[in-house]
Amino acid sequence: MAALMLLPRGGPALGTLLRPLCSWADGLLHNMAQPGTWDRFYTQQDTAGTPSHFNWFFNYMAISGLLLPTLRGCGPPEPNPSPTRVLDVGCGTSDLGLGLYRDSPHPVHISCVDVSPVAIRSLHRLLQEVPPPRHPLSQLHLHVADATDLEGGGFGDGTFHLVLDKGTCDSLLRCPQGPGQAGRLVAECLRVLRPGGSLLQFSDEDPDARVPFLEQAGGPGVTVQEVGHIDGMCYYVYTLGRP
Ligand SMILES: C[S@@+](CC[C@H](N)C(=O)[O-])C[C@H]1O[C@@H](n2cnc3c(N)ncnc32)[C@H](O)[C@@H]1O
């Protein structure tokens, strides 16, 4: 995977994003493991009445050059027409899942999951504006579910070829009560992966801290790649495979 230099329009760093948005940004930063926090956050985003995407770190366009080939590489081999199954955990109102659904030249079934019904409602409205997918058999499904208990949400073992996490594990790890939940999140993401599938975590956390955490939560074989820099902050993609 080639390292990308993220363009500023990909989105500024978390603190920069939050500062002008809401007076209770500090509260958000310390309560990211609480579902009510996210409902309030996405309600605040939606007050203008017109739904718009909110992306942590960077948007779909900034990483589509990395994601689309990854998607192709982990799906069923040609000429198998069955879809590549993708799960986006803690999707929020990010354009990640919608972008992959729209652009993939091969059939994809994308499930976007978030604990916040407010986020899922906004994403559902945004979905109405997405042009038809490039492949007619592609599908996109939105679910309100707890990603630390995907089994409770009806997601069985070995369902997905690719699981994406952009900022969700980060947000759990940043709260005092979060690390246990972050470990459960990783375990659940790996459980729903097919053998040979991959979990990709996009994060601003340094490899010195994230790799040991992931190895403890998910096992050995974690790889890390720089994705790019925004405002001097380095962003990474961590990959875990299911043997
Ligand atoms: C830092 S935001 C990232 C949002 C999105 N992935 C993006 O890139 O813009 C974290 C997201 O995780 C969601 N979240 C937090 N805890 C969760 C959980 N236990 N299960 C599912 N989603 C969760 C929040 O509602 C929020 O949308």
TrEMBL record:
<dbReference type="Pfam" id="PF13649">
    <property type="entry name" value="Methyltransf_25"/>
</dbReference>
<protein>
    <recommendedName>
        <fullName>Citrate synthase-lysine N-methyltransferase CSKMT, mitochondrial</fullName>
    </recommendedName>
</protein>
<dbReference type="InterPro" id="IPR029063">
    <property type="entry name" value="SAM-dependent_MTases_sf"/>
</dbReference>
<keyword id="KW-0808">Transferase</keyword>
<keyword id="KW-0809">Transit peptide</keyword>
<dbReference type="GO" id="GO:0032259">
    <property type="term" value="P:methylation"/>
</dbReference>
<dbReference type="InterPro" id="IPR041698">
    <property type="entry name" value="Methyltransf_25"/>
</dbReference>
<keyword id="KW-0489">Methyltransferase</keyword>
<dbReference type="InterPro" id="IPR051419">
    <property type="entry name" value="Lys/N-term_MeTrsfase_sf"/>
</dbReference>
<keyword id="KW-0496">Mitochondrion</keyword>
<dbReference type="GO" id="GO:0005739">
    <property type="term" value="C:mitochondrion"/>
</dbReference>
<comment type="similarity">
    <text>Belongs to the methyltransferase superfamily.</text>
</comment>
<keyword id="KW-0949">S-adenosyl-L-methionine</keyword>
<feature type="domain" description="Methyltransferase">
    <location>
        <begin position="86"/>
        <end position="197"/>
    </location>
</feature>
<comment type="function">
    <text>Protein-lysine methyltransferase that selectively trimethylates citrate synthase (CS) in mitochondria. Seems to conduct trimethylation in a highly distributive manner rather than in a processive manner, and thus introduces a single methyl group per binding event.</text>
</comment>
<dbReference type="GO" id="GO:0016279">
    <property type="term" value="F:protein-lysine N-methyltransferase activity"/>
</dbReference>
